[in-house]
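Morning F.,

Quick status update on the modeling queue. The single chain you submitted on Monday has been processed. Sequence for confirmation:
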Amino acid sequence: MKAMILAAGRGERMRPLTDHTPKPLLRVGGKRLIEYHLEALSAAGIVEVVINHAHLGEQIEAVLGSGEHYGLQISYSHEATALETGGGIYKALPQFGSDPFLVINGDVWSDYPLQRLPQQLDGLAHLVLVDNPDHNTNGDFLLSANRVTDGDGERFTFSGIGIYHPDLFASCQGGAFPLAPLLREAMAAERVSGEYYEGRWLDIGTPQRLSQLDDELSAIAE
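Structure tokens below.
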């Protein structure tokens, strides 16, 4: 299975940290944020990785290079302007062929073991859901009998870790568009599976959350 890390966001809420450094290269716990994903992918035996970028993307390529240092083969999908989650994935589709592929948001951190993800899809997508953080108390989606749905009930937060089949994007055209409407359409057709993960997960959306994670990881390393 191939993987993609979404790294094209501007990181407006992280300013001024992201004025001169792309968010995936911000350091936390002694490493760049994106390096945690790269190490997790390598540990799971996933070798081929695509990284999209826009804002200050040349820095990402300069730092990570071909991925050899991480035991990976990294290629890049450059976006002149960020294409949002759906548009970014759609632009990179030719690099994945006809098989399902893993996508990870570049601005999350988790100890989720990627090797436990299913190798085959039962539908068009498989999502990892987590407990709702303080900044998303209403959650995103419901989970029942390993199926993800959208409606009323106890919701969980989408972790930003998911597997997608290229057919999920069959009706799409190039340009900027979000991923969520495609997922909701597939959910309505009962074609999205999912799982709940109770381990550690954090959306690194603000300098405060970055500092919080840095303190936690630094304490563990001591």
